[in-house]
Amino acid sequence: MSESMQKPGVKSVNPSASTTDADVTRDELHFRRIDIRGFRRSDGLFEVEGRVVDRKPHDHEPILGQPVPAGAHMRDMGVRLVFDDDMVVHDVQTQGRADHLDATSQPTKIDSCYAYAAEGELVRRRWPTFHRPAPPKE
Predict the structure, then answer these.
(1) How many H-runs (helices) and E-runs (strands) does the chain carry?
(2) Which domain holds residue 111?
(3) Do 94 and 110 belong to one domain?
């Protein structure tokens, strides 16, 4: 990056590796957008909305779960928090959306580690449909 293109106080560690070179191309591997907005409500409360969206520009097959087509949201999660001047929370709402998932798709975290074992307590509480009892001990 040329000195004239840099923001004040920003220095390039290796100017010769700059992506502004005409002969250098880039292929996007992953996209994540984090959007957070704050509001003052007419009832005197405050509201903050946050959303995280992940997608890949290519087909993706997670270790667990359904294949995700290129451009589809792998993750689309949101939260809305309502609070007052004293930071007392009055309401919390969450939402999760992903076009490639349906009610029968197993959450990708299940069986990804000990804490998310299908026979474990966490899965029993959060995803009871996908919980399976532990095998009997011998």
Answers:
(1) 1, 4
(2) 106-138
(3) no
Let me know whether 95 and 55 are in one domain: yes
| Distance from C-alpha of 51 to C-alpha of 38, rounded to nearest angstrom | 12
Contact criterion met (CB below 8 Å) for 119 and 132: yes
> CB of 73 within 8 A of CB of 98?
yes
Does the structure show a pLDDT above 50 at 41? yes
Closest CA relative to residue 111, chosen from 96, 98, 127, 97: 127
pLDDT of residue 98: 60
> What is the DSSP secondary structure assignment for residue 68, as one 8-state letter?
B
7 inside domain: no
For residues 76 and 85, the answer to whether their CB atoms sit within 8 Å is no
Does residue 91 sit in the same domain as residue 112? no
Q: What global pTM score does this model have?
A: 0.52
User: Cα–Cα distance between 133 and 70 in angstroms, integer?
Assistant: 35
User: Do residues 79 and 92 touch, judged by C-beta distance below 8 A?
Assistant: yes
Instruction: State whether 56 and 112 are in the same domain.
Output: no
Task: Report pLDDT digits (tens) over 89-129.
Answer: 999 998 887 645 544 556 667 787 888 888 888 888 877 88
